[in-house]
Amino acid sequence: MPIIDVAVPVPLRQTFSYSSEQLVAVGARVKVPFGRRQLVGVVVASRAEPEHSSENDTPVKLKAIAEVLDNSPLFNTTLIALAQWLSGYYHHPIGEVWATLMPSKLRKGALLSDAQPGWMLSEEGHDPKAIAGLRGKKQQQCLELLNQGPLASDEVKAQFSAAVIKALEDKGLIEATLITHPPAGDWQHFTLQQTPPTASTEQGVAIAAINQQPGQFVPYLLDGVTGSGKTEVYLQVIEPVLRQGRQVLILVPEIGLTPQTVGRFERRFGIAVGVLHSQMTDTARLQVWQQARRGDIGIIIGTRSAIFTPLKSPGMIIVDEEHDESFKQQDGLRYHARDLAVKRAHNEQVPLILGSATPSLESLNNALNKRYTHLTLQHRAGGASHTQLKVLDSRDQPLHAGIAQGLISIMRSHLQQGNQVLVFLNRRGFAPAVLCHHCGQSVDCASCERPFTYHKSQGRLQCHHCGASRRMPTQCGSCHSADLQTSGIGTEQLEQGLGKLFPDIAQVRIDSDAVKGKDKLINRLDEINARKYQLLVGTQILSKGHHFPHVTLVVVLDCDGALFSADFRAAEKLAQLITQLAGRAGRANKPGEMWLQTDNPGHPLLQDLINNGFSHFARQALQERKLAQLPPLSSQAVFRGEANDASQVINFLQQVKQCYGVSADVAHGSFIGPLPCLIEKRQGRFRFMLIMQCQQRAALHSWLKHHLKDVESLPLAAKVRWSLDIDPVDF
Ligand code: ADP
Ligand code: ZN
Ligand code: ZN
């Protein structure tokens, strides 16, 4: 009887063998008994003969698989190879890797079929009198919709209530049917819907370089300032790829995936674009996944997990804003979609474009080392000018709503000219702390031991680490004084203060409190570009991807915290943020300026950015990382642990260190820690980390692998909540 090895979604670093009536294709899903449950796993090997243990030759008694879910492999060989690579590189159980790779419906065992249930008009329903005879408006609309052809149940359900559908069915006007998908779409035979702008010289060089080497793995770093026309380069290089009938996969940060972005691709080629993001229904997601797998769509745009989309005939992978932190998954399988894109493009033998105005030091390092082809766009497209960066020394200046007097006059002059002004403050809420005016004690979240943020509109305190919320106390918890005062400024207070300073100016606040949900954000952004508001206040949502052609002044308040952070990446992140923010301003031939208000005007990071720009800063930062032997000039992995008892976590990490300490064979490997995480306590649990570092990536991985089993069998490993993060990006 054949033996099947199955990757089962359990946290164990192994596959499990089952017996089967027949051979099952590698890459197909099966349902298998596991303990008292039945789980959906993926077949990783299938062989005709059972293995005999060499010593006593009795065959091992295996359980039988319960059900074969796919008659043919669901995943092709490149995705199977990718899963194996993921499991090895991230030291993650293969069954859980597969569970991460699959859309949730498939993970739950849904049968994949090319036909799906749908609704169509019955014979009576086709009678024009049927619609006229209906009372309910919704019923009429539903009938009109189905008059255009049968439709999948899910799509009908998305627009009409179950009651409407049932009523029409009861009246015999509609009936259930099965919808089969149309054969592969004809997307490769498009005609351009717009004449592309003539490429600038820089764009032309980039486009020619990319077009010269089709159909093979060549990684490019498209390093172009904001507004330099990177998206236009993507549009022009994917055209020949699509014409060859090859698909293009484009990854974007979560916040960058707007109808505007998708619309740009749709408008150029006049073909449907498949969209994948975290807020879609499972059904919709599976549908796009299937379309991509069948080759029915040519362009797929998605966020992080879209890197797992199966492609029938892959032609190119693009990662836009490749520096963005949202590409790193922060729990479970902690993969980096950008790194995975490199691996996948390599496996698929297709070109890879990483685009950014502020490339990650990882990618820049690869470009400078000639592992990636470095393409640069230094000029803004269409003649728009660069934003001027300036520092405003706020020491000893009177502040109004947290803004220095000098800056207020600059703001006023921009507003008087009818332009928009963007004020950035990366702190939501009214005030980041409430202090006792008598004894100085702050009102803290008990489980995180950090001050609560005051949210005035709700009249409540909120912990920004764990989300806990409580009423504003009437007196101090330690001295009982009733004199409690807020300290510091958040966007809510800034908005209020600006309202007083500029009472006649229409203002909008964009942060996660004021703008809940993607649709609302998109509406606000449209209103901003329609010039409904002149003053824009907000957090980093404002720094990403959106263009504000009428903004001529960007004001950044309070970036001093990041200048002195313990995170070695803080400078890189701040420089990216400032550069990205600067890129929001001064399009459409309106020159822009940006002011950084700081108490540290002479700080070398700020000076370097202002005088020499991001690319100079980034090269300097790489030199510093080299001297300090920090990533990307070395490789890191971090063990994190958390528990209610701090000493338990520290002990566990000490023991982890001992597990590894005994191997003296690792050249240049070292440990940092255990030390507290940057957020030391969250929801009552103490958090510590142990950083492992090696100059060579390969050495780090073999070292890690060598003793991971020992770590897992530590008694404390069952008591402490712990994880392993490869190439961590935050602490
Ligand atoms: P990026 O992706 O680098 O931010 P975009 O591709 O969005 O830049 O281009 C910025 C603006 O310049 C867009 O409005 C775009 O239509 C325009 N643009 C891009 N390339 C050209 C070009 N070669 N000629 C004229 N306008 C261009
Ligand atoms: Zn007090
Ligand atoms: Zn808390």
UniProtKB/TrEMBL annotation:
Pfam families reported for this sequence: DEAD, Helicase_C, PriA_3primeBD, PriA_C, Zn_ribbon_PriA
InterPro entries in alphabetical order: DEAD/DEAH_box_helicase_dom, Helicase_ATP-bd, Helicase_C-like, P-loop_NTPase, PriA, PriA_3primeBD, PriA_3primeBD_sf, PriA_C
Residues involved in Zn(2+) 1 binding: C436, C439, C476, C479
CDD domains: DEXHc_priA
Cofactor dependency: Zn(2+)
SUPFAM superfamilies from the UniProt entry: P-loop containing nucleoside triphosphate hydrolases (SSF52540)
Class of enzymatic activity (EC top level): isomerase
Keyword terms of this UniProt record: ATP-binding, DNA replication, DNA-binding, Helicase, Hydrolase, Isomerase, Metal-binding, Nucleotide-binding, Primosome, Zinc
Chain ranges of the Helicase C-terminal domain: 447-633
Cofactor: binding comment: Binds 2 zinc ions per subunit.
SMART domains assigned to the protein according to its UniProt record, in alphabetical order: DEXDc, HELICc
Boundaries of every Helicase ATP-binding domain copy: 211-377
Keyword Lipid biosynthesis included in the entry's annotation: no
Subunit structure of this chain's protein: Component of the replication restart primosome.
Role noted for this protein: Initiates the restart of stalled replication forks, which reloads the replicative helicase on sites other than the origin of replication. Recognizes and binds to abandoned replication forks and remodels them to uncover a helicase loading site. Promotes assembly of the primosome at these replication forks.
Protein name in the entry: Replication restart protein PriA
Annotated organism of origin: Alteromonas gilva
Highest classification ranks of the organism: Bacteria, Pseudomonadati, Pseudomonadota, Gammaproteobacteria, Alteromonadales
Name of encoding gene: priA
